[in-house]
Design brief:
The protein is of the alpha/beta class. Helix content is about 40%, strand content about 15%. The protein has a single domain, classed as TIM Barrel (Alpha-Beta Barrel). Strands 1, 2, 3, 4, 5, 6, 7 and 8 form an 8-stranded mixed β-sheet that branches.
Amino acid sequence: MVRANYHIHTHHSPCGSGDMVLASILDAAEKAGYDRIGISDHCYSFDLNSERIKELRAEVAAASKERNIRVYLGIEAYVIRHHLASVSHQIAALFDFVLVAPNHYHIRSVAKPVRMDARILADHELYMFEAAANHPVTDVVAHPFILSPRIFRIAAERLAQLSQDVMASVDEKRLALCLDRMRERGLAVELNPKFLAFDQEHVEWFYRLCVERGVLLSVGNDAHSLDDIPLSDDAQGFIDSLGLTEAGLWHPLSFD
């Protein structure tokens, strides 16, 4: 059973529901059987400075006091293009971990594919994945190769077919080389079960390639509501099918 979830948004994120307050999140996480979670709001949810981050840490410490669960304070940033991410090195260093999304195309400044052709999109998705993996603030690349209907504004069934065509068009050799570099640097790929909810089961191939190349996987289901926090039976079943050991799972560094 997976005992950690490192991609949970609070009510501070614009996408988070109003009941996603720390006490309720911890109740849901304990009920789900987690012993470690990561709070990872969007970087544009706050005025990010050292004082505000200290306040966030104090909120987390107060909420998790006397709980049987370890709470890490992370942030979800995004890559804009190669060499440019949405948070600075100085701000990134104040968090326990940084998720970097390669495909936040709804944000105006983010580099976008020129059109929705499967081969063009495959090349662009890989370019953005490489950009996220190569950026020095990155600890985990968040939800790569998962195409969100909310972002693409395409009917789910049509998007699932496009996603399948994209995965079939990805340059596997280039992807494997990027994964090898990630392994060498100790970076992780987020194992995000939303691909199942979006009927994009072909993304399983990518996760199996990560395991084959020895890349750490970080379980995070991008929870926006309390009901999202537990893993579904299908998600748990897929994770079990990968045959992961604890050594294959990523966790934030701990210095205590």
